[in-house]
Amino acid sequence: MPETPITHPAPSSALPARLADHILSELIQRGAGPGAFLPSEGELVNRFQVSRPVIREAIKQLEGRGLIEVINGRGARIRPLGEQQLRAYFTHAIALQRVPFRELMEARKPIEIQSARLAAQRRTPDQLDALQDIIRRMRRNIGNADAYVDLDHDLHALIADASGNLIIAHLVRSLRGALNDLTHETLYRRRNRQQLERVHALHESIVTEIGYRNPDGAGHAMDIHFSEALSFLIQRREGGAARSP
């Protein structure tokens, strides 16, 4: 590549950030994917006509954004897409930016509905078997709040995986994880047996419709499930934290 010096001098504190953006832009233009290594430190020095400390700080900033990982003795490479960065963003939004709990739950609802619709169209036989196995285990643990919550998490994550959409899968996991990071009481511990049976019946309905490859039915069942869960959680949230469904 030809040399591309960073023009229009900026304050020294801003230069590494600008350089990090330049490096990222070139990686995108090259079509570099997960696992691809960045040019060496020396190559970047020649490429951008800046000092090694500036290059190192730019690399550090890219690493801090979760975009690359530095491997001792080998260099820096692009990290695979994961939900950690999104989870950190949503956690920050709730804890520090005071984004209302309701807003994150409202954002999660249409994602979960689309997840169920796509899963009904794209799930594999093995994925359906796994969903049905989770539903059976949830039934056996309906009186065990901690176990049921863990299985509920697995159910929604597997539905997202079955959607065949990587972005949806990461969004579902990161939103759920952020909400759980910052809340302390489970949805299920505060419900009576009749309410728990209703929640489980909706879970069963979602999986049944996914099994029938009925996207409208799966989406509708998830819509009802999430509408009821959202209403319950918001009511409980007024008196304290509640854990997500």
UniProtKB/TrEMBL annotation:
Keyword Transferase: no
UniProt keyword annotations, A-Z: DNA-binding, Transcription, Transcription regulation
SMART domains: FCD, HTH_GNTR
Pfam families with a match to the protein in the record: FCD, GntR
InterPro entries named among the record's database cross-references: GntR_C, TF_FadR/GntR_C, Tscrpt_reg_HTH_GntR, WH-like_DNA-bd_sf, WH_DNA-bd_sf
Boundaries of every HTH gntR-type domain copy: 13-81
A GO term for molecular function: DNA-binding transcription factor activity
Alphabetical list of PANTHER family matching this protein: TRANSCRIPTIONAL REGULATOR, GNTR FAMILY, UXU OPERON TRANSCRIPTIONAL REGULATOR
Protein name (record): HTH gntR-type domain-containing protein
Organism: Candidatus Thermofonsia Clade 3 bacterium
